Amino acid sequence: IGVVYVTMSSIPREVYVGVFILPPYRSRGCGMRACALAVQWAIETIDAHRVQARIMSSPSRESAQRLFTALGFAHEGIQRRAVCDAAGAWADITHMGIVDVDWVVRKRRRAAPRNLWDELFERHQREREELLRWEANESSMRIRRTSSMETVR
């Protein structure tokens, strides 16, 4: 029905994961289950610290982003016009990643974000809360608070 793969990166303890599911079998959870097993194997068996997905611009890009977001991957950026597609046109690559600690604690968090924007805003809020806790515990303030640290409303 498709293929899932894990390949080594040139960076120690980092791997790439990818998936392709044939059209008749899409939207049945097969890709989600296969990727979850691949990430679990990479982290628990081969001791990967970081798993990265690179998603090429295509009609199925948004569904792939939803799949990896639901698994706990964070959006890390877009590499514009990075590779040539099958037709020879330049295509963007979306980078998403998860580290071993996030994979282990993902079940303790609330439900997975519905989309990429929810994931970005939730991560921003979480990082802001961590910064505020750090500031409260820090006796001598070494950094100065700026308006850029405020949550976007």
From TrEMBL:
SUPFAM superfamilies (alphabetical): Acyl-CoA N-acyltransferases (Nat)
MF terms in GO: acyltransferase activity, transferring groups other than amino-acyl groups
Residue runs in coiled coils: none
Source organism phylogeny: Eukaryota, Fungi, Dikarya, Basidiomycota, Agaricomycotina
This protein's name: Acyl-CoA N-acyltransferase
Source species: Lentinus brumalis
A matching Pfam family: Acetyltransf_1
InterPro entries on file: Acyl_CoA_acyltransferase (IPR016181), GNAT_dom (IPR000182)
All copies of domain N-acetyltransferase, residue ranges: 14-73
Signal peptide stretch: none
